[in-house]
Write a structure and sequence with these properties.
Layout (H helix, E strand, L loop, with lengths): L2 H14 L1 H38 L1 E6 L2 H13 L20 H13 L3 E7 L1 H12 L16 E6 L5 H8 L5 E6 H44 L1 H9 L4 H36 L4 H4 L8 H30 L3
Antiparallel strand pairs: 1-3, 1-4, 2-3
Helix pairs in contact: 1-9, 2-7, 2-9, 2-11, 7-9, 7-11, 9-11
């Protein structure tokens, strides 16, 4: 088979169906850009989970005098039953005692799933609160005696936070047990939903691209039915006749894949690193680097070549009787 003939046939086919070829390129580019973006987002979420789950602590907040007063006031209003915000009922017997704190700390350190236990006093909690929220109007009304003492528990396996939560929730002297992983999980649920939405849009665009490829091949085969008929008469093989059509689809897909790669690279450069500059503006997130983006580009190019080629091959079996 002469390469010059194949290339000339590819050029003729692309020029004859220029509008549809352009539509194929755009739909392939968008679908593959979303596909690559979904892969990167999944990797980003996985990386963030590993980073934040490792830093997630279980915080055990202890009752102070204000909590005990609130519990007594609530009990007086409800006829002896403490009620109110979560944890208030547990403080009905008064603020946490030194003996209770020692017992809680001893039990925590004795648990095999606990890696470390750090105690934070009310004064330390007040200092940290002022560092984070000192610029707000509410901060000026907060006093150290209103802050709660707490134990910050680091787990060997953050997945087993429920063991600590169930063991200490509702005990005398404990206001509440707060697991930071629950808050982190909500964030990751939102990110996963966004990823699923991107995958859904990608699938729709992929179906549109495949339909356009099939229709383009069908129109191209119909417009060149005379040439293919002559080639059959002179004994050309099925493969020889089909190759130009498959190559047309592959070239259009490759161009679309190149555009998709350009969009992914532009997103990394203009959104993450420069321009919008999310890497500098949101420093709590360790955004993926160029190695992750570049690592996805060969896969995007491969899919961009393979998908149209397979679609064209299957379409030719129906629309090109050779």
């Amino acid at each position: 088979m002469r390469a010059q003939f194949v290339m000339s046939e590819i050029g003729v086919g692309l020029r004859r169906n220029l509008t549809m070829t352009f539509a194929v390129i755009i739909s392939v580019a968008l679908s593959l850009a979303l596909f690559g973006g979904s892969l990167l987002m999944r990797e980003q979420v996985s990386s963030m989970k590993g980073y934040w789950y490792d830093k997630a602590n279980v915080s055990i907040y202890l009752c102070n005098k204000q909590d005990a007063q609130d519990a007594n006031d609530a009990a007086a209003k409800t006829g002896g039953t403490a009620a109110g915000a979560p944890g208030v009922a547990a403080c009905g017997k008064g603020a946490v005692t030194e003996e209770q704190k020692k017992q809680i700390e001893t039990e925590l350190k004795g648990m095999s799933l606990v890696e470390s236990v750090a105690y934070e006093s009310a004064d330390e909690a007040y200092k940290h609160y002022q560092e984070q929220y000192g610029h707000t109007a509410l901060a000026s009304s907060i006093t150290p005696d209103q802050m709660q003492e707490s134990f910050r528990v680091k787990l060997k396996n953050p997945e087993k936070y429920k063991s600590v939560t169930s063991a200490f929730t509702g005990r005398d002297g404990i206001y509440t047990v707060d697991d930071q992983r629950q808050t982190i999980d909500e964030l990751f649920k939102i990110l996963n939903y966004l990823n699923y939405a991107a995958l859904g849009i990608m699938l729709v665009m992929l179906i549109v691209a495949l339909l356009l490829i099939v229709n383009t091949v069908r129109v191209s085969a119909f417009s060149r039915r005379r040439e293919t008929g002559i080639m059959r008469l002179v004994g050309a093989s099925s493969f020889y006749i089909q190759v130009p059509f498959i190559m047309e689809a592959a070239v259009a897909g490759l161009i679309g894949a190149l555009f998709a790669c350009a969009m992914l690279v532009s997103g990394q450069y203009f959104v993450i690193d420069h321009g919008v500059g999310l890497r500098d503006k949101i420093q709590i997130i360790d955004f993926m680097g160029w190695s992750s983006v570049i690592g996805k580009l060969p896969f995007v190019l491969f899919i961009g070549l393979l998908m149209p080629s397979v679609a064209a091959f299957l379409a030719l079996r129906k629309y090109l009787k050779v």
